[in-house]
Structure formats: C-alpha cells, structure tokens
Amino acid sequence: MPGRRAVALVLSTLLVGAGSACSDRHDQAAPAATRLEVGIVPVIDARRLEVVPKPSQAGATIVATVLSGNQQIGFSNNTSLLIAASKGAPLRIVAAGNQASDGDYAVIFARSGGPIRAASDLAGKRIAVNNLNNVGPLSVNAALEASGVDISGVKFVEIPFPQMGAALTQGRVDAAWAVEPFVSAIKAAGGARTVLRTYPLIAPHFPVASYFTRRAYAASDADVVNRFREAMNESLAYAQAHPDEVRAILPTYIDLSPKVAAGVTLPEWNAGVDTQLLRRTADLALRYGYLSAVPDLSQLVGP
C-alpha cells in the first residue's frame, strides 16, 4: 500500500497510535510540514502535515487539552463538544469523524445465562459506560426510551472500555454499553449476550464524533485547518470504500487478533457534518441534564 494511502487509512480508522507524516503529491518540492498534535480516543471510527496522534480515554479530556492550546486539533464525541460549547467554549468543528452504522457497532451486553434478555429487563439496572454524563449514557437512555423503558431507575457506572467485559462477568454491573472494536473483543471472550443496539434507535447515520479546534486557531491558521480537513475527507472516503483494509490494520493499533478484527462492525465515514443530527444530540443532552442550554450550532459548525 503506498505511503500516502496507508496514512489516509490510519487516520480514517481513528486508531492512530503512532506519529504519521502526511504529504501532498509534490513531496520533494514541498515546504516543511506543519506539525499538528491531534488528540484522539482509540475507538473505531497528506498535504504537508505531520500528524502526531495523542491518545486519550475521554473526549472531554481532549476538549480541555485543545482549549488550553496544548493540542491544535482534537477528536471527540459530539456530546462532549456540545457540552463544552454550551458553557461558552470557543470550539469549531473542522471535519467529520464517524457516524454510527447498523449492526453491532454499539451494543448493550448482559451476562449469558442471566435474567437480562430484552430492553425491558434493563429498567433499574447498573449499566457500565466509559464516561458519565456523556455519549454513552445519552445513547443508552435514548435507546431505552425508544424501546418504551422507564429510565428513571437506571444507574450508570463508569468503567473503561477494555475493562467492561471483566466487570460484566464478575457481576460488578448488570449490563455494559460498548462500541467497536471492544464489542468484538467482548464477544470473543464469551460470557456475554447482546441485548440492545443503541444508535439505530436514535437516528440513522447518527453522528458520533468530529474533529475540532479552537475558533481562534481556525482563524489564525486557516490554511492548516483547511489542509487537515481536505486530508481527513480524503481518508474518510477511502476508509468507507475499503473496509477490509481498515479491518486488516486494526491489530496494528489495538490489542486485537486478526481473526477478531476481521469481524469488527465498522462505523460509517462520511465527510458531511449533519447539523440537524447534531441538534438532535443537543436536544437529548438537554433532556438528560448534561447541558443547561443548546449552544449556537452556527458557531460550533461554522460556515
């Protein structure tokens, strides 16, 4: 695989665990690359840019790092971005990240052989999520309500994705909400059954995450931001068109066997930022008390 193509694929998987250099077609004559530190969360989601990925376990942490100026661009779930923007954080989405797909991309698991078999059985239960008051509980609440379940007694327990399978089998929680590739890892380990697929119950092509920066950086370094957007849009299109190559590269960036990686349910990658679905996310976050007001989406998404 040519170098530029490989870098595009690595970026588009959202599993970039080591520095990658990106360049345009005129590598020999091109000026020095602009160094960009990009905060990412290691989940399944060119043009003279040296991209230095900085993994983190939470989108909210990445938001804070970008706002501090320690990173130029970040990758975060949209719920974290909306919460920060509602508090006045001067953020600007610069590129789409990933959208939820059908199938087992995001799943609520329960123990095999246990009493939880359907959405109705989750009322009043302890459910593991990777972060409280964020996209995990938001999607679980929305999916449960769409299934006619009373969410008032549901308790969320914060557990990192890699530890959810063990927490479930050990009985520390009644159920666990996980996303790929951790969904496939939990399935491979055994002891869990799929109870509910969350995102399709909220909206088709639900926008999970985006790349973003500070509005001041978007204004002062517009050329760099535009080149990043163009590179990301190219890589998103490539990843959408080459799913087998995406799956093949997953074990390079996360502890996943090639056999398990081959069965991972991939997200969708589309360059468009759907403002109406972002508004849907904001309305749900407002409903569940994660923000006190819907932010100005024209400021967040920009022109």
Average pLDDT confidence is 82
Tell me the name of the CATH class of the largest domain. Answer: Alpha Beta
As a percent range, the share of strand residues is 15-25%
Form type:
globular
Write down the Rg: 19 Å
* Largest sheet properties: 6 strands, mixed
* CATH architecture title of the largest domain: 3-Layer(aba) Sandwich
List the domain count as a whole number.
2
- Secondary structure tally: strands: 11
Which sequence of SSEs, written as H and E, runs from N to C?
HEEEHEHEEEHEHEHEEHHHHHH
Structural class given helices, strands, pairing? alpha/beta
Low-confidence stretches: 1-31, 38-49
What is the H level of CATH, i.e. the homologous superfamily of the largest domain?
Periplasmic binding protein-like II
Lateral arrangement of strands in the main beta sheet: 1-3-2-4-11-5
Helical percentage: 25-40%
SS field, number of helical segments: 12
What's the quick description here?
Helix content is 38%, strand content 21%. With 303 residues, the protein is an alpha/beta fold. The protein folds into two domains: 3-100 and 206-301, 3-Layer(aba) Sandwich (D-Maltodextrin-Binding Protein, domain 2); 106-201, 3-Layer(aba) Sandwich (D-Maltodextrin-Binding Protein, domain 2), CATH 3.40.190.10.
Protein model, in words:
This protein has 303 residues and is α/β, with parallel strands linked by helices. It has 2 domains: 3-100 and 206-301, D-Maltodextrin-Binding Protein, domain 2 (3-Layer(aba) Sandwich); 106-201, Periplasmic binding protein-like II (D-Maltodextrin-Binding Protein, domain 2, 3-Layer(aba) Sandwich). It is built from 12 helices and 11 strands. The chain has helices at residues 3-13, 59-67, 78-86, 135-146, 164-169, 182-189, 215-220, 222-241, 243-253, 258-261, 275-287, 297-301, and strands at 20-22, 34-40, 49-55, 73-77, 91-99, 106-111, 126-129, 155-158, 175-179, 192-197, 207-214. The strands form 2 sheets. The protein has a 6-stranded mixed sheet with strand order 1-3-2-4-11-5, sandwiched between helices. A 5-stranded mixed sheet has the order 8-7-9-6-10, sandwiched between helices. Helix 1 packs across helix 8 (222-241) and helix 3 packs across helix 11 (275-287). It is globular and about 55 Å long.
